[in-house]
Design a protein that fits this description.
Spore Coat Polysaccharide Biosynthesis Protein SpsA, Chain A, alpha/beta, 337 residues, 45% helix, 2 domains
Length: 337
């Protein structure tokens, strides 16, 4: 078992949100003889001075960095790691008290240390809407509810909101690909390379729990899907093999043409789905009888909107590739989800 665990957190302009995460890390119940190293990578630096007003656990290190995206921020933090195990979490999550201990023990129990994924739960809001419940109860963002404790999964099940990785493996693979900026697929692309290089698979250990303190709205969700579409075009350029496995094709130009046709064809279905979704999403979920049935209906209903946002993002970013500044334009004004 490791005697030191390193936690790296990338953040961008959200010191207040990060503060709750750091307070939770200061309350960890660590295994005997295990110490904690916390490295916070501030993408874009601390212009407001807000991070300096935080009260982090002793020994927390802050890195002021130029704005270069979440992968570059995590790689900078990785360069300061002094342990043999790295844990990753987001600035808008707060780990439960045994989070570090569960990751350390899960890694120690594996025949060969590798990728371990914990459980990220959405925060329970005091006044949950239908949309809050949809995000919580379906695969709109995560699909933890389809996963089973102790099983191995493929690289698509690796999300750096709650994961641990041996430091040697991270470094052997060169960390996260910094060309995937501002964010999106940098974790899956790393896990894809790790699956080819080291112990295959992602081990799911849901006893390592953290809470996602981020209330996602309908507009946020649609923007997120458009961002993922844009970043899928970046993924094709960065790692075409990973792109091919994820989307069943290697030729992004064909995919762009198909998406362009679908954007023209599905406009009416998309508009109808948006109207119907807006009828429901702000309602208190407690006012909806037979929620399980309604949930499945709304989940199916939102899929045309999800697909259209993704396709529009993909086509738009693919077209920008003819502009030498497309990556800079994509990364402007970003924040982490």
């Amino acid at each position: 078992m490791t005697n030191l665990a390193s936690i790296i957190i990338a953040t961008c302009g959200r010191p207040k949100i990060l503060g709750r995460c750091l307070r939770a890390l200061g309350e960890q119940r660590l295994p005997g003889g295990v110490g904690l190293q916390i490295i916070v990578a501030i993408d874009g630096g601390d212009d407001s001075g807000g991070y300096g007003r935080l009260d982090p656990p002793p020994g927390t290190e802050f890195l002021d960095l130029p704005r270069a995206g979440i992968g570059a921020a995590r790689n900078a933090a990785l360069g300061r790691v002094t342990s043999d195990l790295v844990l990753t979490t987001n600035d808008d999550t707060y780990p439960e008290p045994d989070w570090v201990m569960e990751h350390v023990q899960a890694q120690a129990a594996r025949p060969t240390p590798g990728l371990v994924m914990g459980l990220t739960r959405w925060r329970e809001w005091p006044d949950p809407t239908v949309f809050d419940a949809l995000v919580r109860d379906t695969s709109m963002v995560f699909f933890f509810h389809t996963m089973h404790a102790g099983r191995m999964y493929g690289f698509r099940h690796f999300w750096t909101c709650n994961a641990s990785v041996p430091t040697d493996l991270l470094r052997a693979l060169g960390g996260f690909d910094e060309r995937l900026r501002p964010y999106g697929y940098e974790d899956l692309e790393f896990a894809f390379r790790a699956e080819l290089y080291g112990p295959p698979g992602v081990y799911y250990h849901p006893a390592a729990v953290n809470v996602h303190d981020h209330r996602l709205g309908w507009g946020d969700y649609c923007r997120r899907e458009a961002c993922l579409g844009r970043m899928a075009a970046c993924l094709w350029e960065v790692n075409p093999d990973c792109f091919r496995v994820m989307y069943g094709r290697r030729d992004a130009e064909t995919m762009r043409r198909e998406f362009t046709e679908w954007l023209a064809l599905d406009r009416r279905d998309h508009a109808a789905a948006v109207v119907e979704m807006r009828r429901w999403i702000e309602r208190p979920v407690c006012s909806v009888p037979n929620w399980n049935d309604v949930r499945e209906t709304l989940y199916r209903l939102h899929i045309p909107v999800k697909r259209r946002c993704f396709r529009a993002g993909f086509v738009g970013c693919f077209d920008l590739r003819h502009d030498g500044h497309w990556k800079d334009r994509l990364a402007m004004g970003h924040s982490f989800p």
